[in-house]
TrEMBL record:
Keyword flag Transmembrane helix: yes
Bilayer topology annotation: Multi-pass membrane protein
Protein origin, superkingdom: Bacteria
A Pfam cross-reference name: ABC_tran
Protein name according to UniProt: ABC transporter ATP-binding protein
Residue ranges constituting the ABC transporter domain according to the UniProt record: 348-582
Positions of the ABC transmembrane type-1 domain: 32-310
The keyword Transmembrane is annotated on this UniProt entry: yes
Keywords: ATP-binding, Membrane, Nucleotide-binding, Transmembrane, Transmembrane helix
InterPro entries: AAA+_ATPase (IPR003593), ABC1_TM_dom (IPR011527), ABC1_TM_sf (IPR036640), ABC_transporter-like_ATP-bd (IPR003439), ABC_transporter-like_CS (IPR017871), P-loop_NTPase (IPR027417), Type_1_exporter (IPR039421)
Subcellular location(s) of the protein: Cell membrane
Residue stretches spanning the membrane: 30-48, 68-87, 171-189, 261-278, 284-304
Length: 590
């Protein structure tokens, strides 16, 4: 069992690592040039070492000034070449590293968009934000630093080792057994460190989520006086993450200690054996000095490579969640060859629709409904009966488990998501406003709209008068989530968006249920102007407005149980009549 788990972890590691490397593939030409320049830069220190050996063994004993001058000139020329090569290498290195880093961030943004509505309903926002604050920087660090450093150091390490073998292969092979000291103990400490790193990464995500929740719920926490309770929960998670991080560093330090022990033992053996070889005449002083210098260089580069490799292993652990996120498959996908509707009339038909957020929890069952172009229908029913879920299916936020939804006799899953959603306008109970100007908030529905179009949409939504009363009019910053506006003002901004978009189908999802009577009247005036000639689907409007609809659809436990006009439904003395007479919903709502 443990072997199988180890094999699976190994496979997962390489999948994630190769996925990280894949962001370098589009820039493989400059990447290869970077490697070539790295190898060139690695050869130069070896040439300098060889010249140093020549200086000790030949120039210094003979005191030949001409050869010494030539040596100095040669070293200067080599250093100039090295500086030029390093400058070029660094320039192209930055180019492909930054482009690859940009690509990973854009791919995550794109995936967030592609996953759609279902992902956001099932995953906390704080957890998604942690991808950008924790996982993306880790992968970017690999692309910007770890991978280039490992490749460059590995090239230098390999060439240095080959050069040492040419000096004295027996002496070179002597310090290799010392590395076994490190490899016999190092992997244990490495595994422990990775284990704690995994735990720490999960706790950091929880901390991010908790911080987001605390900031988002600051009003509720103050109202109920539970700030200390919330702070205590946050401190508990933070303390546990700190404890785990301390354990991680302990094992990383032990890992480093064993590496140093191996190096120090190698130095002692090298000095003892090297001294004997020099005394025996099988090794010159210049070769021995050069060997020592290159040994330390190799040990340094080996330490760099091993340290970076181990850090990369830790980073791959962090990158695994990002890899899994990138490979999530969206529940709703664009068709390969979407059908295009030339002129949308607004006819909607639902044929035997069944839906559940999972197979064990069916929300809608055998829904049949026809909505003709320009028809206004109202869907009513008790809380949880499936009204809002039905509206989400119409814009393909979800796909039904069974059945077909058509728009103008074309299945909506054959339309592109953009065309379908351009056809539909939503007015939610609690619209989301961005922390920018009113103009930009209205323009969300049509980014290329002119300021005149924005103003006309605001006038139609009965919002122009309150906007012009604001300090900077349409350029007023309204605060995060529109905190400087009232509920009715936010709703009219939302309706202005729909006016600007001018869709053929409009869905109101309890758009006025939380408003007071005066504000509701103003919002309804704006809505009535908007509805002319449109297909309208409204959810849970008040009795005062429900009479105006052509058709009322009554739902109960995920099924349509009654359909008809207000008068017809009242006459049959069924569920709708019971709701009206019993006033089941607050504030005279049905």
């Amino acid at each position: 069992m443990e072997v199988a788990q180890s094999v699976q972890k190994f496979k997962t590691f390489w999948k994630v690592y190769l996925w990280c490397l894949s962001y370098l593939f589009p820039y493989k030409k400059i990447f290869v040039l970077f490697l070539c320049l790295s190898m060139f830069s690695s050869v130069i220190p070896l040439i300098i070492s060889k010249m140093f050996q020549h200086f000790i063994d030949h120039i210094l004993p003979t005191k030949n000034l001409n050869n010494f001058n030539l040596l100095i000139v040669g070293i200067i020329c080599i250093y100039i070449f090295m500086l030029l090569a390093n400058a070029k290498k660094n320039k192209i290195g930055i180019e492909f590293q930054e482009k690859a880093s940009r690509d990973i961030q854009l791919s995550v943004f794109k995936k967030v968009r592609d996953l759609g509505f279902s992902y956001y309903e099932q995953h906390p926002v704080g957890k998604t934000i942690s991808l950008f604050t924790q996982e993306i920087p880790v992968v970017q660090g690999m692309l910007r630093y770890f991978i280039p450093v490992i490749l460059e150091s590995s090239c230098e390490l390999l060439l240095s080792f080959i050069f040492l073998m040419t000096i004295n292969y027996k002496l070179t092979l002597l310090f290799i057994p010392c590395m076994f000291i490190y490899y016999l103990s190092g992997p244990y400490f490495e595994r422990k460190a990775i284990s704690y790193k995994e735990q720490y990464s999960k706790l950091v995500t929880e901390v991010d989520k908790k911080q987001y929740d605390s900031l988002s719920a600051v009003l509720e926490l103050r109202v109920y006086g539970t700030e200390k309770w919330d702070l205590k929960n946050l401190i508990n998670i933070a303390q546990e993450s700190s404890r785990i991080f301390s354990r991680f560093f302990f094992f990383m330090d032990m890992y480093a200690v064993m590496r140093r022990v191996a190096i120090y033992i190698g130095v002692v053996i090298l000095l003892l054996v090297g001294y004997s070889l020099v005394r025996a005449g099988s090794l010159t002083i210049g070769e021995f000095v050069t060997f020592i210098l290159l040994f330390y260089q190799i040990m340094f580069k080996l330490t760099v490579v091993m340290t970076q490799i181990n850090k990369q292993k830790m980073n791959v652990v962090n990158a695994t969640r990002l890899y899994e996120f990138i490979n999530l498959s969206p529940h709703v996908k664009d068709p390969d060859n979407p059908v295009k509707l030339k002129d949308v009339k607004g006819k909607i038909e639902l044929k035997r629709i069944s839906f559940g957020y999972n197979s064990d929890n069916v929300v809608l069952t055998d829904i049949d409904l026809v909505i003709n172009p320009g028809e206004r229908i109202c869907i009513v029913g008790s809380s949880g009966c499936g009204k809002s879920t039905l509206s989400k299916l119409l814009a393909r936020f979800y796909d039904p488990l069974d059945g077909v939804i058509t728009l103008d006799d074309t299945p909506i899953n054959k339309l592109s998501l953009k065309e379908l959603r351009d056809t539909i306008g939503y007015v939610f109970q609690e619209p989301y406003l961005f922390g920018t100007t009113i103009t930009e908030n209205i323009r969300i529905s049509k980014p290329d709209a002119t300021i005149d179009e924005v103003i006309q949409a605001a006038k139609a939504a009965n919002a122009h008068s309150f906007i012009t009363d604001l300090p900077s009019g349409y350029d007023t910053f309204i605060g995060e989530k529109g905190s400087r506006l009232s509920g009715g003002q936010k709703q009219r901004i939302s309706i202005a968006r729909v006016f600007l978009k001018n869709p053929q189908i409009i869905i109101f999802d309890e758009a006025t249920s939380s408003l007071d009577n005066l504000t509701e009247t103003k919002v309804n005036n704006a809505i009535n102007t908007l509805l002319d000639g449109k297909t309208v689907i409204s959810i849970a409007h008040r009795l005062s407005t429900i009479r105006k609809y052509n058709k009322i659809v009554v739902m109960d436990k995920g099924k349509i149980i009654e359909t008809g006009t207000y008068e017809n439904l009242m006459a049959i003395n069924g569920r709708f009549r019971q709701m009206v007479d019993g006033r089941e919903l607050n504030n005279d709502e049905v």
